[in-house]
C-alpha cells in the first residue's frame, strides 16, 4: 500500500508539473520584472483591466501564448516585440514564474 501511495503521488506530480519542470522560477521572476511587470504587475496580477492577469495561469498556456506572439500567430504589436526578445528558456522561466503566483480575482 505504501508503494502504491508513493507511485500515485509521483505520477500526479509529473502530470501537474508538465513542461515547466526544468524551468527556473527565480530566473523567471527576474526576467518578468525586467520585461513584463510594467504592464502585467510584478506578480502577474495587473490592476489595469487593459492588461491580462497572468498570475496563476497554466505555464503551458503562457508558453503557448508567448510563442504564438513571437511567431506572429497571435497578433499584438506590443506583445510581439516583447516576446521576440525572449529566448525559449526565458519563455519557460517566465511562464513557470507566473504560473507559481496566485491569481487574484479583481472587479473593475
CATH classification class: Mainly Alpha
The average pLDDT score comes to 84
| Helix/strand class | mainly alpha
The CATH topology corresponds to Cytochrome Bc1 Complex, Chain D, domain 2
The global form is: globular
Number of strands: 0
Q: Quick one: CATH superfamily?
A: Cytochrome c-like domain
Strand content range: under 5%
Q: Enumerate the spans where pLDDT stays under 50 for 5 or more consecutive residues.
A: 2-20
Helix content: 55-70%
The profile of the biggest β sheet is: none
> From the alpha-carbon coordinates, what is the Rg to the nearest angstrom?
16 Å
The name of the CATH architecture is Orthogonal Bundle
With helices defined by DSSP (H or I, 4 residues minimum), what is the helix count? 6
Describe this structure as you would to a colleague.
The radius of gyration is 16 Å and the shape is globular. With 108 residues, it is mainly α. It has a single domain, classed as Cytochrome c-like domain (Cytochrome Bc1 Complex, Chain D, domain 2, Orthogonal Bundle), CATH 1.10.760.10. Helix content is 60%, strand content 0%. The chain contains 6 helices and no strands.
Give the arrangement of secondary structure elements.
Layout: H1 2-17, H2 25-35, H3 37-40, H4 59-71, H5 77-84, H6 88-100
Helix pairs in contact: 2-6, 4-5, 4-6
Amino acid at each position: 500500500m505504501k508503494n502504491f501511495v508513493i507511485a500515485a503521488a509521483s505520477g500526479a506530480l509529473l502530470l501537474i508539473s508538465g513542461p515547466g519542470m526544468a524551468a527556473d522560477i527565480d530566473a523567471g521572476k527576474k526576467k518578468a520584472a525586467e520585461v513584463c511587470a510594467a504592464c502585467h504587475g510584478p506578480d502577474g496580477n495587473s490592476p489595469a483591466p487593459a492588461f491580462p492577469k497572468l498570475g496563476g495561469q497554466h505555464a503551458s498556456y503562457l508558453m503557448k501564448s508567448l510563442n504564438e506572439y513571437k511567431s506572429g500567430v497571435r497578433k499584438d504589436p506590443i506583445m510581439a516585440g516583447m516576446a521576440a526578445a525572449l529566448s525559449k528558456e526565458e519563455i519557460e522561466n517566465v511562464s513557470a514564474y507566473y504560473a507559481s503566483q496566485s491569481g487574484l480575482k479583481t472587479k473593475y
